């Protein structure tokens, strides 16, 4: 009798998240760790909406992808019963460009501002896209402009941001993701473009919390590595991880980053969207992978997972 009651209680706990609707996002510690935090993240998911990109072995977009050409692996369970599958109907982008102006990136700061100005002046997206610019250095993280930066953010204005000091990278990403979540609208896709060397020296937010904030915002993050290291560094690994987890891309500053960002804006209009019911799980975090069903040369890129429910931490 005791075992029967325990199984019934477990079943109710598993089914309960599927009743919920209207996702609610707060901030929380994303990954099991020993770190103590006052940040809260809470969400309930009745349907998973997954935006992804499909390319061939030459990294070219696949135009004729069918829903039986791939399978989604959600929390190690194969999903083939999709509620919907279609091309992404991205009508507008909401973009935050993050400028690292701390001491460690000063050798590349001039090129950083030139790249941003070139991107803004030759914006490849929709004329109605919203573009904001956020700078961070020392203890200061502030918006240079919001919404209309393509017309109001001049090279002189970029060059005049506060410079030097420590690097509050993770705090800046938290501000950007919170900003995007507060403004979230249907058919408006969030995007973050992060210029930095990936080194954080002063943030209150941890790296684990940063990854959770990115996933909660559902924003693709495109990172441009400003480091002067000839090889791989811890900062480079941080930027690569943020980009990969969000379904974005990573590039070093010497590798035609403006061209990559132009391609990134364009590719959002060729993305696919698939929806499905989340599988039952006792885990807060659902990892996601997309695998080819027939053509093993197909490659897929998407966010790495989502949180279905979470207990509040005080």
Number of helices: 8
Reading the helices and strands in chain order gives HEEEEEHEEHHHEHEHEHEEEE
CATH class call of the largest domain = Alpha Beta
CATH topology of the largest domain: Rossmann fold
Q: Could you name the CATH homologous superfamily of the largest domain?
A: von Willebrand factor, type A domain
User: What is the radius of gyration computed over CA atoms, rounded to a whole number of angstroms?
Assistant: 20 Å
Strand content: 25-35%
Number of strands: 14
Strand order of the largest sheet: 7-6-5-8-9-10
- Low-confidence segments, given as residue ranges, are 1-43, 310-314
Account of the 3D structure:
The chain has 314 residues and is of the alpha/beta class. The chain folds into 2 domains: 19-88 and 271-307, Immunoglobulin-like (Sandwich), CATH 2.60.40; 92-268, 3-Layer(aba) Sandwich (Rossmann fold), CATH 3.40.50. It contains 8 helices and 14 strands. Strand 8, helix 6 and strand 9 form a beta-alpha-beta unit. Helix 6 (207-217) runs parallel beside helix 7. The longest helix has 14 residues, at 2-15. The two termini are 36 Å apart. The model is unreliable at 1-43 and 310-314 (pLDDT under 50).
Would you summarize the structure shown here?
With 314 residues, the chain is an alpha/beta fold. It has 8 helices and 14 strands. It has 2 domains: 107 residues, Immunoglobulin-like (Sandwich), CATH 2.60.40; 177 residues, von Willebrand factor, type A domain (Rossmann fold, 3-Layer(aba) Sandwich).
